[in-house]
Amino acid sequence: MLLPSAYDPGVVAALSGVDAKQIRHVFFVACGGSLSIMHPAKFMLDQHLDMPSDVYNAAEFVARAPRRLDQQSLVILCSMTGTTKETASAAAYARTKGAVTIGLTLDAKSPMGQAVDHVVGFEAPYTTGVPIDAKDSNYARIYQLVLGFVALAGGEDLTQPLIDSLQALQPAIDRAHTTFAPQFESYAPGFAKKDVIYTVASGASYGAAYSFAICVLMEMQWINSHAIHANEFFHGPFEVLDKDSTFILLKGLDSTRPLEDRADEFLHRFGAVENILVLDAETLDLTGIDAQFRGNLVPLIFFDTLWRFAYKIAELRQHEMLEGRRYMKKLAY
Amino acid sequence: MLLPSAYDPGVVAALSGVDAKQIRHVFFVACGGSLSIMHPAKFMLDQHLDMPSDVYNAAEFVARAPRRLDQQSLVILCSMTGTTKETASAAAYARTKGAVTIGLTLDAKSPMGQAVDHVVGFEAPYTTGVPIDAKDSNYARIYQLVLGFVALAGGEDLTQPLIDSLQALQPAIDRAHTTFAPQFESYAPGFAKKDVIYTVASGASYGAAYSFAICVLMEMQWINSHAIHANEFFHGPFEVLDKDSTFILLKGLDSTRPLEDRADEFLHRFGAVENILVLDAETLDLTGIDAQFRGNLVPLIFFDTLWRFAYKIAELRQHEMLEGRRYMKKLAY
């Protein structure tokens, strides 16, 4: 079976090199922000195919050396620049075990690009500063990889609704900026003064919460943070909640939304409304995005729009975003 | 094949009800502190058997409804009191899919105890206040479940070295209290004044770091916290590090130790020594614990000894541990 040409050519080429019916395990492997997209990728795979998978930090993956990894494994990696040493090493390690490797990166000539069997390119505003269309983002490409693999492995072929939905994504993001702008405007001054801001989500949105916590708040603003799973919240973390504590809650549209609803209720019961920023996907105009993929795609909307919130906070804190880092890409470690 | 009688009778009984050769997936399902033991359980399974597995928060598990879950699944759950609603629901859900369920709990008559096919008991000082032998703890029982299952499923039979190692565990913990006491004594006054304390670990120790962060520091001391994976640390979180920021680093003996070593080096390069508490398993006398299980068992030593540190902090903060909670088991939510 060949993949429909509606898919990105890089995705088609990569998956044409995979004997999907022979694959018995998928490993999603990366670090940091690139690892964050692996959580929603696994979420999508879990719900669409009877296929086991794991999400591992790249260094953990190599050191752990799961026995399951072999020539019937598909290992999907991501490193934006392709220079992440742990991820390049993980690709090389996976190949020594006979696994098929696909690497998402902006740079096919990078160490990770060279280390994998197949490269899938994507676009990111990060390096060029030029706005991209979200249908060309790492999220969009990995979702194509997952559903393309699902189709090839004998699952349902959902190509057309996915492609159509991705086409409708950027306009939905553009509208979401407008929808969320008043909230960002009113919450930024208070949040800019905080030392600790937690993010909360579940299901497909957990990765976006994780990424915003560790790559934006911690890395670029030196604000203490971490992502709390919306149900784990009730099993310890909620005890820190008082009128001063500060949370960003992502309420998505996937099947775990009731978990986020419950967290929302508790946060507003004991927290202060001005310290609880809730991004609710139900308030968005998602025209053109197929109902079955709304849960998968709203995390991109959350993450994209939250950047604007982050820049507002950065301005108020007078702490530059990328240039404000003290260690990352500034010294050897 | 029958399991050797050296195993706990509950473990033997539970696994005798499992047709191990028919199982093709293991789900480890729980919430909060009980979820924390599932991470090292999966770590052990990953390294000893070619068997896919997942670790899920119980509510996420049900809402996600992984397609993989079926009558060839083994679902291992844990709830100390057995009253955790999400976990009891997860057990019931798994059974509707035909999966075999094993529940670890102190109370076989509890809702979760009633909801599973097989109950495995354990002991915890939590409810009775009476010290236990660590060989009877939830960790010890789940490790027996994992390696018993490995043996039954056709993997190596490591019963004897595991049982011998568990016998040697409590004496090792008792010695570790003495080893770590001077560190706890000297770090407690400083840590008691902190608003944010991160825990850092990888591999088999990640669960202990997670549990100490969310169930002890956040839940019982209202100190902001979260567990950071030792390699993820370098992909965002490390930017919060300065001379004031506060970390507890667990350096275990499993194959991911180099990740923790690297975090140690960086923490001491840019942090203040008085704010970085390192528990290094290499300083411990682990006589009687088989070399191949030291990595798996030191997390119990970390967690057990860290309770003493927590009580020291609680005393200095004049904030009671269990009685100091404001929401958990105090109101309906």
Automatic annotation (TrEMBL), chains A, B:
MF terms in GO: carbohydrate derivative binding; glutamine-fructose-6-phosphate transaminase (isomerizing) activity
Keyword presence, Transport: no
InterPro entries xrefs: FrlB_SIS, GlmS/FrlB_SIS, SIS_dom, SIS_dom_sf
Any one GO BP annotation for this protein: fructose 6-phosphate metabolic process
Alphabetized Gene3D superfamilies for the sequence: 1.10.10.2240, 3.40.50.12570, Glucose-6-phosphate isomerase like protein, domain 1
Keywords on record: Aminotransferase, Transferase
Domain SIS: 11-161
PANTHER family: FRUCTOSELYSINE 6-PHOSPHATE DEGLYCASE, GLUCOSAMINE--FRUCTOSE-6-PHOSPHATE AMINOTRANSFERASE, ISOMERIZING
Protein name, UniProt field: SIS domain-containing protein
